[in-house]
Amino acid sequence: MLKIKSVEKGGIGEELGLEKGDEVLAFDGHDAADILDYLFYDAREKFTLTVKQTNGDVSSCEIEKDDDERLGLEFESDNLGIKTCRNNCIFCFVDQMPCGMRESLYVKDDDYRQSFLCGNFVTLTNIDEGDVERIIRLKLSPLYISVHTMNGTLRKKMMKNRFADRINGYLERLAAGGITMHTQIVMARDYNDGKELEYSARELFKLYPNVRTMAVVPVG
Fold first, then answer.
1. Into how many domains does the chain fold?
2. Domain check: are 118 and 41 in the same one?
3. Is residue 84 in a domain?
4. CB of 177 within 8 A of CB of 210?
5. Residue 121 maps to a domain
6. Which residues, 6 or more positions from 190, have their beta carbon under 8 angstroms from its beta carbon?
């Protein structure tokens, strides 16, 4: 849900009668989770907008406009609070940070939205099928993905996360959905190097051209 803070005068939003305090609930039946939903649909020529007014009434309307026309809405929040990491990687750089640095350096972000917006690397261990569908639907591309290994069993061992072996399926789904990906492998000796590294490279190369790059970062 996106709560309206202001409505641009003379804009489409004002023509629709939208006011401060109204809540945008959905676009084309999909929940308005954060500002990315708004930005995507605001650039489209046709979509359905569902709004809850301050009096509690919920209504939907069909929007038809030129793609360069905007609804002209500003929201109280972009709803982009950072999604954090659920892994406990054997090589975690954040865990090895010295004390006394600025606070932001200790934030273990793992947020596909920030990957799209800022180029942050994500592991995809904290997403579900709904997130994959959303990434494809909103065309959140490119994404930057910390793969580490395409061996699911080994990935779970290295990242200490029981969902880590879902990476292969996610990458295949994203590639089929037209998402461009840049990948990295943090290489730990006697874990994901040697034949394991060769295997991961072969599997990632199968997803070219959607997987555009594979960087290898050796652990010191």
1. 2
2. no
3. no
4. no
5. yes
6. none
Residue closest to 92 by CA, chosen among 111, 107, 113: 107
155, 149 Cβ separation under 8 angstroms: yes
Q: Going residue by residue through the chain, which has 220 residues, state the pLDDT in tens, using 9 for 90 and above.
A: 999 999 999 889 999 999 999 999 999 999 999 999 999 999 999 999 999 999 999 999 999 999 889 999 999 999 999 999 999 999 999 988 899 999 988 999 999 999 999 999 999 999 999 999 999 999 999 999 999 999 999 999 999 999 999 999 999 999 999 999 999 999 999 999 999 999 999 999 999 999 999 999 998 6
Residue pair 107/95 in contact by the 8 Å Cβ criterion:
no
pTM, two decimal places: 0.91
The answer as to whether 46 is a domain residue is: yes
Sort 73 into a burial class: Cβ within 10 Å, 0-12 / 13-18 / 19+.
Answer: buried
Alpha-carbon span 220 to 214, nearest angstrom: 19
Domain housing 7: 2-75
Domain boundary among 75, 94, 111: 75
